[in-house]
Amino acid sequence: MSSADPVFSFEDDHETRAEICGSILRSLPEWFGIESAVEEYVRGARDLPFIRIDIDGAAVGFCSLKVNFGINADLYVLGILKEYHGKGIGTRMIGFIEGYCREKGIPYMSVKTLSSGHPDENYAMTRKFYEKCGFVPFEEFPALWGEESPCLFMLKRVAG
Ligand SMILES: CC(C)(COP(=O)(O)OP(=O)(O)OC[C@H]1O[C@@H](n2cnc3c(N)ncnc32)[C@H](O)[C@@H]1OP(=O)(O)O)[C@@H](O)C(=O)NCCC(=O)NCCS
């Protein structure tokens, strides 16, 4: 394994989860520009299962998971530092989470993101990422996050 390979692991310390979540979301203002929303994600991520991605011993990305009814692992919030985008790391993280779901007998994964009802180009890339990872658009919630931010719910069946 070269030193630049990403390492995926679960983080159990609540304070460390909050620190990684806050610093990575604040480094991605094109996606997470609303400070009150970042604070809410940081609060939520403290107490939820948390996957961290490390390169050379430093956190470069994360995903916070919320398991609903024991059958659906919802990607509550996730992000990777911009300099590491487009290198396959996010796809590998989804694979890691899918492995966790298989181990736990969780048959579905889901995510809520900004829908194409909003013209934002960064979120258009994010939706493409989820589609490439096997998520399909499942339902749109135009007012869940307020009418300025239409929400798309996407679902993926865990392979195997
Ligand atoms: C979405 C995200 C986790 C994807 O991780 P990633 O490591 O960049 O994605 P991968 O390299 O595994 O997959 C790339 C594919 O996703 C798409 N993609 C989505 N966002 C991208 C980005 N910022 N840069 C490059 N490709 C991106 C491309 O279609 C790409 O496919 P291609 O390489 O065949 O063109 C990451 O880009 C990110 O942190 N984005 C900002 C935060 C965000 O969107 N969070 C989720 C909010 S709901």
Question: Key terms for this structure?
Answer:
binds coenzyme A, alpha+beta
Largest sheet: 7 strands, mixed
Give the strand order of the largest sheet, numbering strands 1, 2, ... along the chain: 1-2-3-4-5-7-6
How much of the polypeptide forms β-strand, as a percent range? 25-35%
Q: Calculate the terminal CA-CA distance, rounded to whole Å.
A: 27 Å
Annotation field: number of helices:
4
Find the CATH topology.
Aminopeptidase
**Total domains:** 1
Q: Could you report the average pLDDT, rounded to the nearest whole number? A: 97
Question: Structural class from helices and strands?
Answer: alpha+beta
The CATH class is identified as Alpha Beta
Associated small molecules: coenzyme A
What does the oligomeric state look like here? single chain
What do you see in this structure?
With 160 residues, this protein is an alpha+beta fold. The protein has one domain: Aminopeptidase. Helices cover 33% and strands 31% of the residues. The chain contains 4 helices and 7 strands; from the N terminus they run E-H-H-E-E-E-H-E-H-E-E. Strands 1-2-3-4-5-7-6 form a 7-stranded mixed β-sheet, sandwiched between helices. It is globular. Residues 28, 31, 78-80, 85-91, 113, 125-126, 128-129, 132 line the site of coenzyme A.
